[in-house]
Amino acid sequence: MIPFPLMVQANDMWYALPLIIAVSLVYAATRHEEMIPILAHAGRLALWIIGFMAAIFAVLFFVSWGL
Amino acid sequence: MSDQAKENQPDKSIDLRDPVVAAVLAWLVPGLGHLYQRRMAKAVLYFLCIMSLFVYGLALGSLPEKGWYGRVVYFSWRPGDKRLFYICQVGAGLAALPALVQANRMANNRRVWLSGFQAPPRHPTDPVGPENPNRDQPTAHDLYKEIPRYFELGTVFTAVAGLLNILAIYDAWGGPVTTAKKEDEEDEEDTQEENGEQRA
To answer: Is residue A55 part of a domain?
Structure first.
């Protein structure tokens, strides 16, 4: 069973979702003028951010294994 | 021409009108600069993304049971409470400016407005007697104690909103970054082609 404080921290990750969406859309909007390229760029950027966060999570998870 | 090539085509038809006015308007209200430039879709996108983050951050940093609203955005430059986050938050423009008014009122020993919306926390060394009109305001310790995680989250949301608006301001002032870059690349290609023709 996952300790309660860790569960709370895992739920906190949902707060990253609106940040990722807003950051992706605004950044993409500064690169394009039309809405379709903006949405396409934002989608790619959001996936990249999520992938990057997952990679950092994996590294920290293995580094802290057994602590 | 392929779709990708069309997507990368520089759009030279963007009328930025007066870029300085657009930039100032974009700072005051996210998206207003783009509305001035009649770039409606981007105006809506910037306004919704940036203001949603900002308002959500304010909501996270509120505690209605105690009458505390929008406490995560405040200006303070007192020893022990230098609020560097405000430098980021003020990027959101008008929405963050009440903090300056509230900080000014508190510094001049006048009662803060709107139940302390965006007011700085009371300093622990401030008098708590009737001579202090803001004696009922929470200290930073109270805020961290009552809304610990949400105070931090709200601070991050509002700071990110302010920083994102700086990107929007740049877009209102200079247009999309890709367009400018592509134009430069095209100019370089044209110059190279001309040089090649001259040699031939």
So the answer is: yes
